[in-house]
Structure formats: C-alpha cells, structure tokens
Amino acid sequence: MITMFYISTLTLLICYIVMTLASLISKKTIFDREKNSPYECGFDPKGSARFPFSLRFFLIAVIFLIFDVEITLLLPLASIFNITKVFSWLFTSTLFLIILLLGLYYEWFQGALEWSK
C-alpha cells in the first residue's frame, strides 16, 4: 500500500514539474489578433450585426447537411440488401436517390439564380 502511495506521489510530482516547465518555456503571444478573436462562420464578428448574411455560405451549409443526412440514410440500405427482396430494395433506394438529386438540383438552381443577381 505504501508503494502505491509513493508511485502515485512520484507520478503527480513528475506531471506537475513537466506542466510547470512547459508553461515557462512556451512562447505565449497575448496580443495575437487572430488567436484572440472568436471564429464565426464566414463573417467578421466585430463589425455591424446588421449586414446581410452571406447566401453562398448558407447554401453550402444546407448542401452539407443534405449530404450528411444522405449518408446516414444510405448506409442501412447497404446492410439490408441480403435481407429484403431485390425489387423492393432497388425501388426504395432508387426513389430515395431521385428525391435527393431533385433536392440537390433545386438548391443548385436557386443558388445560381441568387448568385446571378
């Protein structure tokens, strides 16, 4: 029991020494503007809040969400291929992919119309 106490104490002491040396040796730049500013998605957080939001950034975020959901819904389709009938699996997966493609084309055309303005 005493051996475990000594090992624990030695381990904590070594950790404390290493952390103290690392904080003393490291270069700290307090006045670095990029590190001190918060990261906001695509716009300057220190400017006026009344500027319009970038539609291009919004459309990219929506397309990312669509494809993120698409992947989570397509993975189970691959795993149930052996369990279901081929025709029903093919019909379901084809219908799902057609709906996703129509949504992608709709978003793309809406974005193209907005960008052309």
UniProtKB/TrEMBL annotation:
Catalytic activity from the UniProt record: a ubiquinone + NADH + 5 H(+)(in) = a ubiquinol + NAD(+) + 4 H(+)(out)
Membrane association type: Multi-pass membrane protein
Primary enzyme class: translocase
Transmembrane segments: 6-25, 57-81, 87-108
Gene3D superfamilies: NADH:ubiquinone/plastoquinone oxidoreductase, chain 3 (1.20.58.1610)
Gene Ontology cellular component terms for the protein in this record: mitochondrial membrane; NADH dehydrogenase complex
EC number: 7.1.1.2
Molecular function (Gene Ontology), one example: NADH dehydrogenase (ubiquinone) activity
Record-linked InterPro entries: NADH_UbQ/plastoQ_OxRdtase_su3, NDAH_ubi_oxred_su3_sf
Entry function: Core subunit of the mitochondrial membrane respiratory chain NADH dehydrogenase (Complex I) which catalyzes electron transfer from NADH through the respiratory chain, using ubiquinone as an electron acceptor. Essential for the catalytic activity of complex I.
Protein name, UniProt field: NADH-ubiquinone oxidoreductase chain 3
Designated gene of the protein: ND3
